[in-house]
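Attaching the record inline, Q. Sequence:
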Amino acid sequence: MHAGSAVAAAATFVWLGMVLAISFLEAPLKFRAPGVTLPLGLGIGRLVFRALNACEAVLAVVVIAGLLVGRAGAGVAVAAGVAVVTLAVQVLLVRPALTRRSDQVLAGADGPRSHAHLVYVGLEVAKVVALVVTGVLLFAG
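Structure, as predicted:
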């Protein structure tokens, strides 16, 4: 395996682990912890997901750079591209809607739950699949 591909694989699996740990473990569990109110959970979530997305952006750059240096195949590039585009959609399009809704909840507003949350979760699932495929293809190549 070329060094660039090895770096891309490592960054891919670190990225995958972070998404799985935060989005599918920490996020749902924090609201079940004793004493965590909805406003407190939303505040924690904002901080955690802002940090996660920043780390994801750095890892995405590392993956892309590793793929360019390692001259990865088209399948790997497509899978990694799906993960990167998914992250961009989450950060640029979905998170602003989630922030607006959480601002309303923190201000005391009631109302229906945001569909943006379901979109974000669906994108997380797609990103996880794309990262698994990227990592597996890097190891197989």
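The mean pLDDT is 92. The CA atoms of residues 87 and 120 lie 10 Å apart.

More tomorrow.
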